[in-house]
């Protein structure tokens, strides 16, 4: 949780300052890298350097903040090797995805592996400067590269400063390094947020306006037909029913219910846009996830949807009782002159049927 991460970072800061004075170069590097990854980077990577730090500490007679007696060092070392071997086996079991009894991925192994490598959190300017719980997988990105290089330079610099035996200078440099690292990572994340916002924020706001209009200006039992390749969001704020979308017809309808009639209805609605699931080739089925989630089939159904004529929508609305059509102006270049416009903003247009 965020609270555990917060106190873990406080301890690592104390640990790092202590190692600047007494630790070796590897410990300083691992501590700096672990601290920054734990606090700022994508989850799933800090576990390994932290585990290596634990080994070096055990050799020096510490188990985290706990002092180990000379007699307990050997026992702690054996325990460390046992835990390390267990975690390795669990990770391997998850990687190979094999269970002796079922031939499938062992649920316990998968759960432990995921919790080991991907439960860490990062500090994000997206959500009010707070610690967030984020799942993830091992993924090298630009932020981690900066952290890795920065930690290495920091460790080398501290080693050089130690030769001067100037404690105040070492402490000052460590503080400067932490401030600069925080500033760099915050800027990278904030810049990433701005890129996202400039690309999608305005369109999302327009879609919210359409939903707000629908809620305030249409009967409660109205049926809307939004873009079938726009999978999420319509019902959230409009509180109005949707004719559905590709993901609901081809995936959600069978993932959340075993009702065969619902499945057949989904296939029927997909066929309304000239797409027959039964005709999909074997090669397309092999990449079914991307097919359903929009890279392939989504583009196809969107192309058909925006190529439909006003008479096609009139026929469809009579067949299913559709009251309104919601279209994205990015794809709907030419307005229908024979349909009544119920609402329009910069990015969307709503026709009343």
Strand and helix map with partners:
Elements: H1 2-22, H2 25-40, H3 47-59, E1 62-63, E2 66-67, H4 70-96, H5 107-117, E3 122-124, E4 130-132, H6 142-162, H7 167-217, E5 223-225, H8 234-238, E6 241-242, H9 246-255, H10 260-271, H11 282-286, H12 288-293, H13 297-307, H14 310-320, E7 324-328, E8 340-344, E9 348-352
Parallel strand pairs: 5-6, 5-7
Antiparallel strand pairs: 1-2, 3-4, 7-9, 8-9
Instruction: Report the structural category.
Output: alpha/beta
User: How many runs of DSSP E, i.e. beta strands?
Assistant: 9
Mean pLDDT: 75
| Ends distance | 50 Å
Q: Figure out the total of helices.
A: 14
Radius of gyration: 28 Å
Shape: elongated
Can you tell me about this structure?
With 353 residues, the chain is α/β, with parallel strands linked by helices. Helices cover 62% and strands 8% of the residues. The chain has helices spanning 2-22, 25-40, 47-59, 70-96, 107-117, 142-162, 167-217, 234-238, 246-255, 260-271, 282-286, 288-293, 297-307, 310-320; strands at residues 62-63, 66-67, 122-124, 130-132, 223-225, 241-242, 324-328, 340-344, 348-352. The strands form three sheets. It has a five-stranded mixed beta sheet with strand order 6-5-7-9-8. A two-stranded antiparallel ribbon has the order 1-2. Strands 3-4 form a two-stranded antiparallel sheet. A hairpin with a 5-residue loop joins strand 3 (122-124) and strand 4 (130-132). It is elongated. Residues 118-140 have low confidence and may be disordered.
């Amino acid at each position: 949780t965020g609270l555990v991460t917060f106190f873990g970072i406080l301890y690592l800061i104390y640990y790092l300052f202590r190692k600047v004075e007494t630790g070796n170069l590897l410990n300083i590097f691992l501590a700096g890298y672990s601290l920054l990854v734990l606090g700022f980077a994508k989850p799933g990577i800090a576990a390994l350097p932290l585990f290596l730090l634990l080994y070096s500490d055990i050799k020096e007679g510490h188990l985290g903040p706990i002092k180990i007696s000379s007699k307990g060092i050997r026992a702690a070392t054996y325990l460390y090797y046992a835990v390390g071997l267990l975690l390795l086996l669990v990770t391997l079991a998850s990687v190979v995805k094999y269970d002796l009894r079922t031939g499938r991925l062992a649920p316990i192994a998968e759960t432990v592996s995921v919790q080991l490598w991907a439960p860490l959190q990062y500090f994000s300017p997206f959500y009010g400067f707070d610690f967030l719980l984020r799942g993830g997988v091992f993924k090298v990105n630009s932020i981690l590269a900066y952290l890795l290089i920065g930690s290495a330079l920091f460790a080398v610099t501290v080693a050089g400063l130690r030769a001067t035996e100037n404690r105040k200078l070492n402490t000052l440099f460590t503080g400067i390094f932490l401030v600069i690292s925080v500033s760099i990572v915050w800027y990278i994340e904030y810049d990433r947020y701005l890129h996202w916002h400039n690309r999608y924020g305005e369109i999302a706001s327009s879609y919210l306006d359409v939903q707000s209009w629908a809620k305030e200006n249409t009967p409660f039992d109205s049926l809307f037909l939004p873009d079938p390749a726009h999978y999420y969001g319509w019902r959230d704020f409009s509180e109005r029913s949707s004719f559905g979308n590709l993901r609901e017809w081809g995936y959600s309808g069978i993932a959340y219910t075993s009702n065969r009639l619902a499945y057949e209805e989904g296939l029927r609605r997909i066929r309304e846009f000239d797409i027959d699931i039964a005709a999909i080739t074997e090669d397309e089925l092999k990449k079914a996830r991307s097919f359903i989630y929009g890279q392939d089939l989504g583009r196809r159904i969107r192309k058909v949807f925006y190529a439909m004529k006003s008479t096609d929508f009139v026929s469809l609305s009579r067949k299913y009782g559709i009251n309104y059509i919601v279209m994205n102006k990015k794809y709907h270049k030419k307005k229908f002159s024979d349909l009544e416009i119920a609402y329009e903003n910069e990015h969307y247009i709503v026709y009343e049927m």
